[in-house]
Specification:
Blueprint lengths: L14 H10 L13 E5 L19 E5 H9 L1 H6 L15 E2 L5 E4 L5 E5 L6 H8 L3
Antiparallel strand pairs: 1-2, 3-4, 4-5
């Protein structure tokens, strides 16, 4: 009698893509900045029928996250979507900026790099009221 072998289907990113993502994010979690217990986070959920979609494992859809923040993203969807750490279908992740621990916003490029958009300025108090009034 011979044992049946089952083949595990690998639906994650290739080693080369993982290396690009870790390098782009400077081997740091995009939420808290730690360099410990790093994983790859999919911005668009794989469980939503996307595991056979080749775009699901492209650098624009992947982030470096520590294990704790990876779980935090799932437990805090509203904040995760607002910061670009998660992306709703059918939105292309390349068009959704990501907030990094420094506060800067970056767009993620298909070649595994990122482009800095800057740090948003929050206007409060009298200046915010004047801006809202169009003055």
């Amino acid at each position: 009698m011979t044992a049946l072998r089952t083949r595990t289907r690998n639906t994650g990113p290739t080693a080369a893509v993982r290396a690009l993502v870790f390098a782009r994010d400077e081997h740091r979690c995009v939420r808290c900045g730690t360099g410990n217990t790093l994983t790859i986070q999919h911005r668009t959920n794989r469980a939503m029928g996307g595991s056979s979609d080749p775009a699901i494992n492209q650098p624009t859809n992947l982030l470096t996250a520590c294990q704790a923040c990876n779980m935090w993203f799932e437990a805090n969807p509203a904040a995760s979507y607002a910061a670009g750490w998660k992306v709703r279908r059918p939105t292309d992740p390349a068009h959704v900026p990501v907030r990094y621990p420094t506060g800067e916003l970056r767009t993620l490029e298909t070649d595994g790099t990122s482009r800095t958009l800057g740090v948003p300025v929050v206007i409060t108090g009298r200046r915010a009221a004047l801006a809202a009034a169009g003055r």
